[in-house]
Amino acid sequence: MAAINFPNSPADGQEFIAANTLYTYVQTKNLWKARSLSSGAGGSGSSSLAGLTDVSLSSIEAGDMLAYNGTFFVNTALKYRQIAYPCAATYEITNVGTDYKLSNIPSNPNNPAITAFAGTTIRFDLSVASDPVRIKTITDLDYNEGLIHVDNQGNVLTGALAQGKTSGSLYWQVPPSAAGTYKYQSGVRTAMFGVIKVKGAGNEPATLVTTVGTTLALDLAQSNVFVISLVSNISTVQLNNVSAAGSTVTLIINNAANFDVSWPNSILWAQGSAPVLTTSGTDILSLVSINGGAGWYGFVSGQNFG
């Protein structure tokens, strides 16, 4: 007969179930009194886990994780879906009006941009009622590879079937070759989305920009490498969403003719002056900030590429 691991230091009247038998501890005799729970045995023990004397549960729900604290079994703050797969980063997504909010993001902006690394896993805990979440490419196509959805009952859906959920946990096991720019987007509001910038080993997604008018606005939440088709003179340059820790930006400028850029005074250029761009040619410039974009160091990486 297999040994039964009774609870340590039981209290008088404490109940314990093993092998379809209810054991009740009798303190005066220092023994466990056994009663079979088989049909017709007349057992009157607890019919639920919460009814036992060595548990302390409150508002237990499907998917709750239980832990023994040395005295009682208690429900934790975790759901099984949140530990189903290991992950490098986690975010809770909620929706406020026509915007998404993500936990763990400083200053709590709307639809914040996040960064992931190819070959790692990120998890979204969904609580978005009327705005089901879809993972998409920057060109608005569903991206299904590596997606896993786990609901509170532990049911698992993968790939395209994991898309468009409003609750549960959505895992994205980012493929090693997936460096680029993606979106988490509402399935019912195309303008409701945040950017996911996926970095790979030695790979930085490049963003193509064609100048329109006299303002060049570069969103560093999307990329730190920009291929710029310069088809007009630029009088204003905006570097948006600079990391607080600093950023390194690469600008590959394809000058269509004799166009020029008026750089902001916040850029200190090597040799004390901004470079003269190649007419009808390609130049590569680099910008480095160590103070969240308040100031930049600028230098030429190369000019007049044929």
Number of strands: 24
Beta-strand residue percentage: 35-45%
Radius of gyration: 29 Å
Written as H for each helix and E for each strand, in order along the chain, the element string is: EEEEEEEEEEEEEEEEEEEEEEEE
Q: Overall 3D geometry?
A: elongated
User: Which percent range fits the helix content?
Assistant: under 10%
CATH fold-level assignment of the largest domain: Immunoglobulin-like
CATH superfamily (homologous) name of the largest domain: Cupredoxins -  blue copper proteins
**Number of discrete helical segments:** 0
CATH class of the largest domain: Mainly Beta
Name the poorly predicted regions: none
Domains (count) = 3
Largest sheet: 6 strands, mixed
Give the end-to-end Cα distance, rounded to a whole number of Å: 84 Å
Describe the overall structure.
The protein folds into 3 domains: 15-78, no CATH class; 89-199, Cupredoxins -  blue copper proteins (Immunoglobulin-like, Sandwich), CATH 2.60.40.420; 206-305. The radius of gyration is 29 Å and the shape is elongated. A hairpin with a 2-residue loop joins β7 and β8 (99-102). The chain has a 6-stranded mixed sheet with strand order 8-7-10-14-12-13, with no helix packed on it. Strands 17-19-21-23-24-22 form a 6-stranded mixed sheet, with no helix packed on it. Strands 9-16-15-11 form a 4-stranded mixed sheet, with no helix packed on it. The chain has 306 residues and is mostly beta strands. It has strands at 15-18, 21-26, 31-36, 55-56, 64-68, 73-79, 89-96, 99-102, 114-117, 121-127, 133-137, 147-150, 156-158, 167-173, 180-186, 193-199, 206-210, 215-219, 225-230, 236-240, 247-255, 267-269, 282-289, 296-305.
